[in-house]
């Protein structure tokens, strides 16, 4: 949670979504819950049940393995995706890595900043280098994804 | 020269009987998963290398926290050191050595000056490229040949069979040729605009006289090493051949600041910017040098009359034009990598396939090389094509290679 709050300050793009946990902490009146889950493809989703939006990003481990990211291909806003669909790619000089939809839903927003600054993905994969936001059609899918511990075990 | 001879002769005493068979015996007893190591394996590990399997060897991909782009740029702007000791170094010696190698390759080796190198190709009976190689002539009867690690088995058995055939025939009667494998010798490539000033501080030899494509035995801090000016990056640089017992010491000598150890990752992006081929990706046994854009390695006087293996196939492509041709591309949007298909934008006809491609760190553009149908103008500079990347068509145009202008020392 601390980390999430730090990112909220760092990234104006995330403010609308992440303002709620701060409210939650301050007043305890909101029922908003932000959960974070991982996939074996080294992606993560941060899901806010108040907005129904999941922010998709690649993990710090993934960006470190990829090396300098020079190009990010993102899905089109409005596209309906099914969990497992290939929705884009992250390219370093070394290689191209596909991005898969970690959950089903509709692409609500993509991180336009990555077009000019793909390096954000290395500098700050979570806060500034996030890939897209998906409006989840089946929020229960979050439960099937990996916890942080299980994710780390998947590649360690 | 004297030192080379004495070293290699000493080695050959032990190797002569086994030179040709040893590698296969080794392969037979080794499980395929077991990777070989160059003499610098421990040196790499102690320098923070990330080791990866490459051509049967465990080789450094990158060192420490230095990213591929930073490593690449360091070689373009300053100087980097590469371990290329996995490559196969050998000596061909004998009264008919020139004629023998002119049978195996389409190069003009009789007119090559002593202590000069040339890029060449070993051709199969159809004119397809078995491997690309650098051949250095020391004398009419002595050549130093470097071939690819990934083709070791194929090349060595090809050499062994052709040598046996040659020495049993008329030519061999005039004087046999023997091949000596410089097994476990080191090979280091010092590359970049500051390579010459760095090396000059370690030798009394005036490097200004050693121009691109030349080689010499250089006294380097008490060692006497074969140094060839050239490399695989497009930058000025040197390839230094080192006896097994001296490799680690020489590597330490050549890796002080500003030299940065450089791995396979940067090696690939540097060679691709320089328009150079990677055997197995850009060249194979179904590709003639004419298709591969390597017609220039064929000696002028050998194009019409040369009696080299595969001459008929090569000559047919020279005469009628090759059915396809390797060309360079600049690709809009996403980088096109190996396997991406190339199409005619108007008819969507398949024109060919990309064999190597990267986002170029130097140019900030996506560059690629691949093969297109030849004869309808697709191989010409400026031809507009489409390349499919992850299901999307990306605009691309044919450009000349090298992508980045080489900066060789030509005196």
TrEMBL record, chain A:
<dbReference type="GO" id="GO:0005739">
    <property type="term" value="C:mitochondrion"/>
</dbReference>
<keyword id="KW-0496">Mitochondrion</keyword>
<dbReference type="GO" id="GO:0019464">
    <property type="term" value="P:glycine decarboxylation via glycine cleavage system"/>
</dbReference>
<dbReference type="GO" id="GO:0009249">
    <property type="term" value="P:protein lipoylation"/>
</dbReference>
<dbReference type="GO" id="GO:0005960">
    <property type="term" value="C:glycine cleavage complex"/>
</dbReference>
<comment type="subunit">
    <text>The glycine cleavage system is composed of four proteins: P, T, L and H.</text>
</comment>
<dbReference type="InterPro" id="IPR033753">
    <property type="entry name" value="GCV_H/Fam206"/>
</dbReference>
<keyword id="KW-0809">Transit peptide</keyword>
<keyword id="KW-0450">Lipoyl</keyword>
<feature type="domain" description="Lipoyl-binding">
    <location>
        <begin position="53"/>
        <end position="135"/>
    </location>
</feature>
<dbReference type="InterPro" id="IPR002930">
    <property type="entry name" value="GCV_H"/>
</dbReference>
<dbReference type="InterPro" id="IPR000089">
    <property type="entry name" value="Biotin_lipoyl"/>
</dbReference>
<dbReference type="Pfam" id="PF01597">
    <property type="entry name" value="GCV_H"/>
</dbReference>
<comment type="similarity">
    <text>Belongs to the GcvH family.</text>
</comment>
<dbReference type="InterPro" id="IPR017453">
    <property type="entry name" value="GCV_H_sub"/>
</dbReference>
<protein>
    <recommendedName>
        <fullName>Glycine cleavage system H protein</fullName>
    </recommendedName>
</protein>
<feature type="modified residue" description="N6-lipoyllysine">
    <location>
        <position position="94"/>
    </location>
</feature>
<comment type="function">
    <text>The H protein shuttles the methylamine group of glycine from the P protein to the T protein.</text>
</comment>
<dbReference type="InterPro" id="IPR011053">
    <property type="entry name" value="Single_hybrid_motif"/>
</dbReference>
<dbReference type="InterPro" id="IPR003016">
    <property type="entry name" value="2-oxoA_DH_lipoyl-BS"/>
</dbReference>
UniProtKB/TrEMBL annotation, chain B:
<dbReference type="GO" id="GO:0006546">
    <property type="term" value="P:glycine catabolic process"/>
</dbReference>
<keyword id="KW-0496">Mitochondrion</keyword>
<feature type="binding site">
    <location>
        <position position="239"/>
    </location>
    <ligand>
        <name>substrate</name>
    </ligand>
</feature>
<comment type="function">
    <text>The glycine cleavage system catalyzes the degradation of glycine.</text>
</comment>
<dbReference type="GO" id="GO:0008483">
    <property type="term" value="F:transaminase activity"/>
</dbReference>
<dbReference type="InterPro" id="IPR028896">
    <property type="entry name" value="GcvT/YgfZ/DmdA"/>
</dbReference>
<keyword id="KW-0808">Transferase</keyword>
<feature type="domain" description="Aminomethyltransferase C-terminal">
    <location>
        <begin position="324"/>
        <end position="405"/>
    </location>
</feature>
<dbReference type="GO" id="GO:0005739">
    <property type="term" value="C:mitochondrion"/>
</dbReference>
<dbReference type="Pfam" id="PF01571">
    <property type="entry name" value="GCV_T"/>
</dbReference>
<dbReference type="GO" id="GO:0004047">
    <property type="term" value="F:aminomethyltransferase activity"/>
</dbReference>
<dbReference type="InterPro" id="IPR013977">
    <property type="entry name" value="GcvT_C"/>
</dbReference>
<feature type="domain" description="GCVT N-terminal">
    <location>
        <begin position="40"/>
        <end position="300"/>
    </location>
</feature>
<dbReference type="InterPro" id="IPR027266">
    <property type="entry name" value="TrmE/GcvT-like"/>
</dbReference>
<dbReference type="GO" id="GO:0005960">
    <property type="term" value="C:glycine cleavage complex"/>
</dbReference>
<dbReference type="InterPro" id="IPR006222">
    <property type="entry name" value="GCVT_N"/>
</dbReference>
<keyword id="KW-0809">Transit peptide</keyword>
<comment type="similarity">
    <text>Belongs to the GcvT family.</text>
</comment>
<dbReference type="InterPro" id="IPR006223">
    <property type="entry name" value="GcvT"/>
</dbReference>
<comment type="subunit">
    <text>The glycine cleavage system is composed of four proteins: P, T, L and H.</text>
</comment>
<protein>
    <recommendedName>
        <fullName>Aminomethyltransferase</fullName>
        <ecNumber>2.1.2.10</ecNumber>
    </recommendedName>
</protein>
<keyword id="KW-0032">Aminotransferase</keyword>
